[in-house]
Specification:
The chain is α/β, with parallel strands linked by helices. The protein is 43% helix and 14% strand. It has an 8-stranded parallel β-sheet.
Length: 258
């Protein structure tokens, strides 16, 4: 059985003071929900404050991005050891990073390798644009992102991927992110079952492909979350806007608990 996971991507919202306030609202409700991994991913400036507030809770902390080099002259970037000092998770390859900041499958691949090497759980985002979807290229694009993003990750005994729990995929159709236009649950599940898991099986074998958790992301709300979580191949959600309100995010996590 794959343990459900719900992660909140706060994007470029919330000052440090606002983050503290939101976390203080989130913790009481989330602490009482069992059987779901809960993760919040505030902006980098708020990670230190968030780590302090989440200490001793069952709520995980994630960064929204990081560089693949462990140190160096990369002004404005955050290194894996810096993330690992505070966080357990890191979002990699989000479509906004790809579209606005030039990230490619190659750089995502480097970041995934660096995350695993530093003991972080990467949440690797894949998804097609509206044009690609309407052109019937969803399978080509999404499978290609999975293969390229995870290429070269071996499964020897020293690799944390061997457990099947040290990597998470988030299927986020670009056309559904922040638009209010969510993919229907059956369609999203079909992408996971028929495209993403077979691509994972090509890389790591069938058994591991069935162990790796795949989340859905894209206009997930408390009102529609259960539809996705009832699908057999969707293991949780990467939540954007709804993660900025304690009641909404808690409702989504509760839906994942069943």
């Amino acid at each position: 059985m794959r343990t459900p996971l719900v992660a909140g991507n706060w994007k470029m919202f919330k000052t440090v003071a606002e983050a503290r306030h939101l976390i203080s609202e989130l913790v009481p409700g989330l602490q009482g929900i069992k059987g779901v991994e809960k993760v919040i991913c505030p902006p980098a400036m708020a990670l230190l404050a968030a780590a302090a507030l989440l200490e001793g809770t069952e709520i995980g902390l994630g960064a929204q991005n990081m560089h693949w080099e462990s140190s160096g002259a990369f002004t404005g970037e955050i290194a894996p050891p810096m993330v690992a000092e505070l966080c357990q998770y890191v979002i990699l390859g989000h479509s906004e990073r790809r579209a606005m900041f030039g990230e490619t499958d190659e750089t995502v691949n480097k970041k995934v390798g660096a995350a695993l090497a530093h003991g972080l759980l990467p949440i690797v985002c894949v998804g097609e644009t509206l044009d690609e979807n309407e052109a019937g290229r969803t399978a080509e694009v999404v499978a290609g992102q999975v293969r390229a993003g995870l290429a070269g990750m071996s499964l020897d005994s020293d690799n944390p991927l061997a457990s099947g729990r040290s990597i998470i995929i988030a299927y986020e159709p670009v056309w559904a992110i922040g638009t209010g236009k969510a993919a229907n649950a059956e369609g999203a599940n079909a992408v996971v079952a028929d495209i993403i898991r077979p691509a994972l099986a090509e890389l790591f074998g069938d058994a591991l492909a069935q162990e790796i958790r795949v989340l859905y992301g894209g206009s997930v709300k408390g009102s529609n979350a259960a539809e996705y979580f009832n699908m057999p191949d969707i293991d949780g959600a990467l939540v954007g806007g709804a993660s900025l309100k304690a009641a909404d995010f808690t409702q989504i996590v509760q839906a994942a608990a069943g």
